[in-house]
Specification:
Helix content: 25-40%
Oligomer: single chain
Number of helices: 7
Number of strands: 10
Distance between the termini: 80 Å
Radius of gyration: 34 Å
Structural class: alpha+beta
Strand content: 15-25%
Length: 220
């Protein structure tokens, strides 16, 4: 069945209208985008050098292998952990980690908020989301069995043996941290292995004696 000349003319007219409408819409959208990306007013070049370029330039001046400058990791003071003696027996005790301000805390107008010497318990305001599993390097296998996915494993020195946290972390596929002296004092640690967990507004320290740490750990 054919179309009359009049029908064909009307069809062409509608096609022209549709095409024109689409072209107008596209032009309007392009105009909006161009306006958004246009630069209005004066501009200045960035005076600061590119940070990445600075880093790359500095790295280019350094030796390819700097390990010789630092010596073996066993001598790095940054990898020396605070020491704890082995736990002689199983023991559970609690610690409240009170903190005493060493300076005044004041508002800009001079009004006092908290004076020097004010003592507070941080656990009254915050929650420790993970446990701390603190072990000697020799007990790392036990720690890996009992530690949960979110727990932190910290190495403590046994005598002068701090272990190599970097190598042990690479070998185990898990982040291994180092017990610092200030953390040891802050938590009141006295022996290891020990697991530190929050219970309400206090810390529960669970120490494991020789018999417990030779048993298969129960995964958390």
């Amino acid at each position: 069945m054919g179309y009359s000349h009049e029908a064909v003319a009307r069809r062409r007219a509608w096609l022209l209208v549709a095409f024109a409408s689409g072209a107008i819409a596209s032009a309007s959208a392009a105009a909006v985008i161009a306006t958004r990306n246009s630069t209005i007013g004066r501009t200045w070049a960035i005076a600061e050098p590119d940070a990445l370029a600075e880093i790359e330039a500095k790295v280019a001046t350094l030796p390819r292998d700097m390990s010789k400058n630092f010596g073996p990791r066993s001598r790095w003071s940054a990898l020396k952990a605070a020491a704890l003696p082995p736990a002689p027996t199983d023991r559970v005790r609690t610690v409240v980690p009170f903190y005493t301000l060493e300076f005044d805390i004041k508002l800009p107008d001079g009004r006092m908020v908290y004076p020097k010497g004010f003592t507070l318990n941080p656990l009254s305001y915050v929650k420790m989301p993970q446990r701390l599993v603190i072990v000697h390097p020799r007990d790392l296998g036990w720690a890996l069995r009992v530690a949960g996915p979110s727990d932190f494993i910290l190495l403590t020195a046994l005598g002068s043996d701090s272990g190599d946290a970097i190598a042990l972390g690479e070998r185990s596929g898990r982040a291994i941290y180092i017990l610092e002296e200030r953390v040891k004092q802050r938590l009141g640690l006295s022996a290891a292995p020990v697991i530190v967990a929050q219970s309400g507004t206090q810390l529960v320290l669970t120490e494991f004696g020789p018999k417990s740490r030779t048993l298969e750990g129960t995964p958390r």
